[in-house]
Amino acid sequence: MARSLGLDIGKRRIGVATCDTLKVIARPLDIIDRRTQDAIGAIIAHAQTQQVDEIVVGYPYHASGAVSEQAQSVERFIDALRARGNISIVYCDERYSTGEAREIMGAQRRLGAGQHDDAIAAAVILQRYLDARRDQSIDEREDDSYSADA
To answer: What is the pTM (predicted TM-score) of this model?
Structure first.
């Protein structure tokens, strides 16, 4: 089975996360520095190495639900990624992912571990997507079982 890749696209860095082949657990993978690296090339390389069949991109909304100013930058980057790669790309709401990542990092620091929040935020985004997909799959199976009994 293929994995999914999660991206938290920022102005300076891109957090990258991956998951297991069952698409149950997301984990941080890398942080790409957009100033010093070919970000699209690095993402394509990760997609190939991780045997990815889809990329989940955090889409920046304001707390109110309105699309943020950063969204246009994310969309331009994704357009460039699509032009260089042939892989399915889906968006996932990234609201509060950095806050969740910082909470996780705080717990890790207390345990002596350290990491930038970008890759952890990408893992939070990817985990949300995986959980929502799994929940939807469960709902669909429950719907099928009810219709089978009717």
So the answer is: 0.78
